[in-house]
Design brief:
By secondary structure, the chain is an all-alpha fold. The protein is built from 12 helices and no strands.
């Protein structure tokens, strides 16, 4: 259960009492719990969506639901996405990593955040009520199952930092267990659509991570955040396309 607490502290802003783990391996045992944290986040989003859908028009309800989504995660993954996009403007891997460390946001990062948030808001708002709740439950689970896989496939870009610490604590058993949990939740909630959402979300996370990793010579915490955001967006767009084509 210590791993679950660490995972919840790392992925959300939920205040959890208790002492912080030692710094030697802060993520040890936590990665396998990432999908469980995603499931808890999804359950909260389902509740927020039901309340906002009763009180407001669909677009405003979607905006409020996505706002709650990003607030609960503290904007952590959005920050990773913005930093990763800004880093692509660098001339070489060293400069790109330096740009990613900079807390200021650049044009690429700002444009990327705007587009991703707009797409997510509209995708949530346009999903039919019966599917929207199930998608909101599943998508955070799948997205948070991708970091353990990514750190097994790609080496860390730095010898220090959250990305390196996370990479050192994750093995293939952890990665495959996290993915299996996510797939089981997706199939239980969405049946055939769940398999498609899972496959496309993981594929998009892999593609984005590979694209960035080839330009900075390794993976970082920012890249993991970017992959989570892209996986969530891919899952929502997949559910939206399925719903639209089924009409």
């Amino acid at each position: 259960m210590t791993g679950l607490v660490v995972a919840a502290r790392y992925l959300t802003i939920v205040p959890i009492p208790g002492a912080a783990p030692g710094r030697a391996n802060p993520f040890g045992g936590a990665a396998v719990w990432f999908p469980v944290v995603g499931l808890g986040l999804g359950a909260v989003l389902v509740g927020v969506d039901r309340v906002t859908a009763l009180l407001f028009p669909s677009l405003l309800a979607g905006l409020l639901t996505v706002t709650a989504w990003k607030l609960l995660t503290g904007g952590l993954h959005l920050d990773g996405l913005a930093d990763s996009l800004d880093g692509l403007a660098g001339r070489d891997p060293a400069q790109r990593l330096a740009i990613m460390r900079d807390s200021r946001i650049g044009a690429f990062g700002a444009i990327g955040l705007i587009l991703v948030l707009l797409l997510e808001i509209v995708a949530v708002a346009e999903l039919p009520p019966g599917l929207r709740g199930r998608a909101l439950l599943v998508v955070p689970v799948i997205a948070r199952a991708t970091p353990p896989l990514l750190v097994r496939l790609f080496p860390p870009a730095r010898s220090e930092g959250s990305g390196a610490a996370f990479s050192a604590s994750v093995n293939w058993w952890t990665a495959l267990t996290a993915l299996s949990l996510a797939l089981a939740v997706a199939l239980a909630a969405l049946q055939a659509l769940g398999a498609l959402v899972f496959a496309l979300s993981v594929a998009c996370a892999l593609a984005v991570a590979w694209f960035i990793v080839t330009r900075i010579s390794g993976i970082t915490g920012d890249v993991l955040g970017a992959a989570i955001e892209v996986a969530e967006l891919a899952g929502l767009l997949t559910a939206s396309a399925w719903s639209h084509l089924a009409r």
